[in-house]
TrEMBL record:
It comes from Botryobasidium botryosum (strain FD-172 SS1). InterPro entries: DNA/RNA_pol_sf, Hepadnavirus_pol/RT. The lineage of its organism: Eukaryota, Fungi, Dikarya, Basidiomycota, Agaricomycotina. This is Reverse transcriptase domain-containing protein. It comes from the Eukaryota.
Length: 167
């Protein structure tokens, strides 16, 4: 059995001591760890994170402020990569796929910038050989410029909305 990630929310005042790790955890997390112990599910202390802010898949998540933020260095690196990619004339398919993945990752913070991938996806559609050389066309260059302009003007914070659940 293996569990990669589980998430939950609890009040900072609701902490319970978990003896095997010798420290307090949010009560629900401590209960889950005890259940895993009873079932023989392995887990590691270093993976048992809790905080008012957490880094999740490279983004800074603040559940109290209801925000997801791309770290400044990550944002800078992405913008530079789109500039470098744009200036290259011929690259292997693998480079196109990596750039698509990187921009797709950033859409967690910039969800309205999906159109920046349209030309890139169209260019790579149906291609299979990761070493196949391909030209960066004008449409990709224009979409990357559009993407950079919007990311540069954005504060890099995605504000989440909250809905009250009830019967």
């Amino acid at each position: 059995s293996y569990v990669d990630d589980t998430f939950g929310a609890s009040l900072a005042s609701e902490m319970t001591f978990y003896a095997p790790y010798g420290r307090d955890f949010p009560t629900a997390q401590a209960k889950m760890l005890r259940l895993w112990d009873a079932l023989g599910v392995p887990h590691e202390e270093q993976k048992q994170l809790f905080s008012e802010q957490l880094t999740i898949i490279g983004f800074e998540v603040d559940p109290n402020a209801m925000t997801i933020t791309m770290p400044t260095q990550s944002r800078h690196d992405l913008l530079e990569a789109t500039k470098d990619f744009r200036m290259n004339q011929r690259l292997p398919l693998r480079s196109f796929q990596r750039m698509a993945g990187w921009i797709n990752w950033s859409l967690n913070v910039y969800p309205l910038l999906c159109p920046a991938l349209s030309a890139l996806y169209a260019k790579t559609a149906g291609k299979r050989n990761p070493h196949e050389p391909m030209y960066v066309n004008k449409a990709i260059q224009e979409e990357f410029a559009w993407f950079r302009a919007h990311v540069t003007r954005s504060d890099g914070i995605c504000v989440l909305s909250s809905e009250e659940w009830g019967p």
